[in-house]
Amino acid sequence: MSDMVLVDIGANLTHDSFDLDRSEVISRARQAGVAQMIVTGASVSGSEQALALANHHDGLFATAGIHPHHATESTGEALASIRTLLGQEGVRAVGETGLDFYRDFSPRDQQIASFERHLELAIDCRMPMFLHEREAYPRFAEIIRSHRDHLGDLVVHCFTGERDALHAYLDLDCHIGITGWICDERRGAHLLPLVPDIPYNRLMIETDAPYLLPRTIRPRPRTRRNEPHFLSEVARAIAAATGETAADVAERTTANARRFFRLGTP
C-alpha cells in the first residue's frame, strides 16, 4: 500500500483493454494510493459510459465531451446530449475537447468549431474544462484567449509541448496535466526542465491510461497497457525534476485536483 495519496485526473477506463479486469484495475489503483480518478469522456457514448462507471464506483468521477478526433460528431444533437450529461453530479468537467493537429483525424475547421461549442458549454454551465492540445499551438491558445474572460478553470491535459506553449497556457491561467510522457527519455526529456516553471497550485498528474505507460517502471511490465496504479511513477519523475520529494508532489497535485474538480476528501 502506498503512503502517497494521489488523484489521477485523466484515465480512459472505459477503453476496451480494461473490459476483462476493470474492477481489478480500479482496486489495484486504490492499493497504490490513487484515491480518486477522473474517467475521461471523449464522445457522447464514451461520456455516458464514463458517468456510468463513476456512478458505480466510489472515488470515480467523469468528464463529458467530444475529443477533437471525433469533432465531425459534434452535431447539435450530440452537444445537447453532452449538456445533459454536464448536469449530472458525477460529471465534473467539460471535455475532452480541444485541437489535435498532429493526427488530424477530423478536419481542422471542424475541430475548431467543436472546440468553440464546448467553450460555450463550459461558460453556460459554469464548469471547468479538460483540454487536449497536440501540435496545435498557437491556434489553441488564441481560441482560449478570445473566450478566457468568461471561462472558469482550465487544465491542458497531457501537456507535451515546448516552453513557449507552456508559458502561453500559464499566462492564460491554465492548469497543466503531466503524464508518463515525462518518463520517456526518447521524447519527453524536454519536459524535465519545464516542470519547475509550473506554479505550485497549477500542476496536476494523470496516467492517460491505457496509453503512455511510464518507461521508468522496473521491472518492465509484460504488457504495454498503462493503469492508474502506475501514477506514482509520474510523481517521482516530477520530484526528480523539481527537487521535491515524491510525497510533496503527491500532496500538492492531489490538493490541486480536489480543488479543480470539486472532489472533496474520500
Write the CATH homologous superfamily.
Metal-dependent hydrolases
Which percent bin holds the helix content? 25-40%
Shape: globular
Low-confidence stretches: none
Biggest sheet, spatial arrangement of strands = 1-2-3-4-5-6-7-8
What is the makeup of the main sheet? 8 strands, parallel
CATH-defined topology: TIM Barrel
**Which CATH class is shown?**
Alpha Beta
CATH architecture tag: Alpha-Beta Barrel
Strand content: 15-25%
Strands, helices and their partners?
Layout: E1 6-11, H1 22-31, E2 34-39, H2 44-56, E3 60-64, H3 76-86, E4 91-100, H4 108-125, E5 129-134, H5 139-147, E6 154-156, H6 163-171, E7 175-178, E8 203-205, H7 231-242, H8 246-261
Parallel strand pairs: 1-2, 2-3, 3-4, 4-5, 5-6, 6-7, 7-8
Labels describing this entry:
266 residues; alpha/beta; TIM Barrel; 8-stranded parallel beta sheet; 37% helix; globular
